[in-house]
Amino acid sequence: MTTALITGATAGIGLEFARQLADRGNDLVLVARDRERLETVALELRARGVTVDVLAADLLDAAGLDAVDARLAADDRPIDVLVNNAGYGIRGELDENSWDDERRHLEIHATVPLRLTQTALRGMLDRGRGRVVLIASVAAFTPRGTYSAAKAWAVMLARSLNLRTRDRGVTVTAVCPGFTRTEFHERMGVATSGIPSFLWLDAPRLVRLALRGVDRGRAVVVPTARYRAISALARILPDRLSAGGGFRSRD
User: Which of the residues 10, 109, 124, 147 is marked catalytic?
Assistant: First the structure.
């Protein structure tokens, strides 16, 4: 029986990873800030016949990050699959936002997964097996502010690590979703009414496609042909065009 640890596991893409990995027979360690919500999700998933542990932790707090890192390093019931999913969007431009907001945003998307991935990789490489998933975004291929920059970092990290570790039984995959129906944009405080319906993905389909790519050991997975085409086009268009558009505030 393998064990998967998922950050940001109580909603959206993280929750769907938990459900589909449970259906595959993986035991789970669920990480999120809200213990009550974690327990509710754990109750649902235990009904699928797997062991589910909960770890309430704020990954932007040193003690919380230390606790999750220690679980990844533990030899008892080692972690075979790590899904770095925790994260959020940020509005505004770099010159407009506070330093603290930008620092925390970068930490959750880069520093936190870097530390957790490093710890997970060490154990996985010693055991000769394992899967690490970084939830990135198609925004990684467009010049759309610091969110895009952080997600581009995740893509390059996965590419470089997977190149080195795949032959040793461990794969690292960056999953790059497009617009997905979750709480993400609502929490970000932006309107999505202008986004065409054909661009939206549902979380179950997204995760099925993502896991297919993870199973194949791919370094980068862009789910659906439409988003693969969009990401390819974004790489060849002039920056001014590929950066076009933007979200409107809900305020």
Answer: 147
